[in-house]
Amino acid sequence: MLDGQRSGCPINAAIEVLGDRWTMIVLRDVMFGDRRHFRRLQSQSEEGIASNILADRLRTLVEEGLLTRDDVKRGQRATYSLTESAIQLVPVMAHLAAWGLRHRPTTRELRVRAELLESGGPELWEDFMDELRERHLGVPRPDCDRPTATERLAAAYEAALAEGSGARSDTA
Asked: What is the pTM for the complete model shown?
């Protein structure tokens, strides 16, 4: 066996790290919500993650190399940052969201960014990954003359909120 994995299958290897109920939600919130501190991750969780579960998932994500945690002195807030391997999950997140759009009931304000990610495709995903690299890894983002992916996602979300539709939407 490889490092305690059930098998050497790549799908199994990914599921063993990402396949529990909360891990992808925590990564989503760091990635798309820029929630990088424990309190913010817990207090702004749409799904209501418990503190012990959040602490466990953050520890696991650090151990697995998907997040880093800065060293802080007692009483200071630790900041979590995405690693390159976590940033490379953006296309996976986009595909998961697209599947959810088609096959699960969602709300308009929470589905709009997924719709933009799907319609924007790999170009938008790469732009977003470049932004994440800049924010989390300190790698300068390539200059471009279009709005950032974050600006486009935020504008889509704000427009959906302005429409005031909080009703659940049927699958597309």
From this structure: 0.85
